Amino acid sequence: MRGYVKRVSQKAGKLSIEQLRSLLDDMVSENENLYSILESLSAGLLIVDNNFILQQTNTLVESRLPFNIRTDDVKATSVPIWEILEDQDIARFFKNCKEKEITNCSDDFTTMTSGGTVRFLTITMTPLMHDGKLSGRIFLVMDITDTKNQEVILHRMENMANLTNLAAGMAHEIKNPLGAISIHIQLIQKALKKARENQDILPEKKFVEDHIDVVNEEIEHLNKLVMDFLLAVRPVKATLELKNPETIIQNTVEFITPEFNKSDIQIEFTQSSLNKKILIDEKLFRDVMMNLAQNSLAAIKSFRKSDGIFKIRCYIKDNRYIIETSDNGCGMDSETLSKIFEPYYTTKANGTGLGMTMVYKIIKEFSGEILVDSEKDMGTKFTLVFPLPQKDKKLLTSESE
Fold it and tell me: Does the predicted TM-score (pTM) go above 0.85?
């Protein structure tokens, strides 16, 4: 149709009124078809010129992106698109594409609806070409919330599959306290029976109190086991958002530094050169970093009196975001290393054996992986690996391990 209209337009002066009317009807019909196609897309559509001034949209995009004015407002077509967006992260994305003259890329974002619901978006940009020249950009805005939520459900089902192991560990742990309670109650019962047979003369007060004290201690122990078990089996309630992990790590480092310095332990934090975000829950991620830091602190203090060091390193490799923590503490033998994520396994006198289990569950909830490398008397390194929302791997070539 486009070629036909172009050829006819060159001969417009020779066409009759009827022929021109027919041509106009054909053009109107084609325009309506194109408009229907745009409105039928399952993604929001934005078309901008080389100055990132809005040229064309479909209706769906307004339900995807938080605009501060309607896209059919006169102002919307007179200023760069980032000036009419409420979300600052998305606005910076558009502005960065313009300033760096990027023509192909994709990035993920989280937005908040008026009802307080978090939505996940993927914005993909491709070049708009006209007669072989770049005339603007085409942006597709896709809502991937359902996909993300499905991933969360799958991870939670995987966590629930581990419930059998947790229950077996719990059953094993409660045997000893129950056995101790049973023995001491039997001793009290025997003492009372003997007293009745001996003119109701009770044994020494301290004798009974000692047994009751043991029973109370074991009941308290059982209560703690039950509470820890409930914590371990409860699904992780993560509110996933795109966050910069290095900002959270920096805040955590500032918080723990006084405690580490008090023990003459140095902290080194090496950040990546790229300002990337990953899909995490800020509070739970901070809990993970605190747990790893406290484990390293204990390992270093138990092994050396000076020259202790705890390192955190962030970098991007193979389109994945990686966080490494390492220390020069006591390290672990092969048996401890093989059981570190098992529930109720601990080498600490007052440990619950659930700390690293929770770390593992949280990292899995973030669709990540956690690896550990350790050697006795040589230290320990944990590696956290997360998928990057960024789809364009070419943008990551500037970063290496």
Answer: no
